[in-house]
Amino acid sequence: GAVVSQHPSRVICKSGTSVKIECRSLDFQATTMFWYRQFPKQSLMLMATSNEGSKATYEQGVEKDKFLINHASLTLSTLTVTSAHPEDSSFYICSARISRQANEAFFGQGTRLTVV
Amino acid sequence: GNSVTQMEGPVTLSEEAFLTINCTYTATGYPSLFWYVQYPGEGLQLLLKATKADDKGSNKGFEATYRKETTSFHLEKGSVQVSDSAVYFCALSARLGGGADGLTFGKGTHLIIQP
Description:
Chain A is mostly beta strands.
């Protein structure tokens, strides 16, 4: 199947700093990528939908100035957590669709962010 | 809005036992339904899917049938193995008028298989 690579897998940062997470589709072009957040023992919550070459669409309640999403190419989307605080500590997961018509989404390995 | 409800875990079974993980959904239109599995320390992997009513998805001995009348997509396996221990997520994709959208996930069910 298609491969989505997410980097880094783990990151620890100090409160007030910014962290960038990368999501790459390795063997296909993804016009649309999705960013999710997963709290411990909770489900994945969709944060935003990232479309190549255009602004991301954020879900209700997600601060777009806090979670900056850039989808600069058909194989790369980045999520930057700006001015991170301990409450931003979570597991962030990206996924990509192989085409706009496809239902199946492929997921990255996830990034465990810890803000201290 | 769309929602997915699945049974709370953890579910603990002995090896070779029969497994059922219940999943029901609420959605507008005709969603596609999925089961994803997350092994310890790994990302989500698609386990199986069904795109229309009465479809049966199957993979690795797991199967689930899309039941529109009961809005359910229960996951079953006849004989589980220790290697099946993981977290299982039921999810739906309900796209209106075409275009990509995100998945709506259930909370996940942690399955523990004991030898």
